[in-house]
Write a structure and sequence with these properties.
Elements lengths: L9 H38 L3 H22 L2 H4 L4 H22 L2
Helix pairs in contact: 1-2, 1-4, 2-4
Length: about 110
């Protein structure tokens, strides 16, 4: 007789869902921090007279921005965030967009 694999019961499933929710928020916060780091790097490279590297760093920051917008515009991700988390990330994304636009005009 073959043993059946045990399936996660409701408490285990709830734990996994909560862990996934926390991981998603951690990922988005990290992506936002990386985008700001890349933006700072781009500005430094620009100030040092290296527009090629500045453009590349700015492009990477734009990709991070696009990733954040993707997650924040998808209901399946939004439903797992609290209102405070959504507000925090939305404010950070808005600040990022403004700074990307400002640096992109240089």
């Amino acid at each position: 007789m073959a043993e059946q694999q045990s399936r996660p019961g409701p408490p285990q499933a709830e734990h996994l869902i909560e862990e996934s929710r926390r991981n998603r928020i951690t990922f988005l916060r990290t992506e936002l921090q990386i985008a700001f780091t890349l933006l700072g790097l781009a500005e430094t490279e620009w100030n040092l007279g290296d527009p090629g590297h500045a453009a590349r760093s700015l492009e990477h920051a734009e990709r991070a921005y696009a990733t954040l917008v993707h997650f924040m515009s998808d209901r399946k991700h939004l439903q797992h965030m609290t209102e405070d988390e959504r507000a925090e990330l939305s404010a950070g994304i808005a600040r990022l967009r403004a700074q990307l636009d400002k640096l992109g005009r240089k």
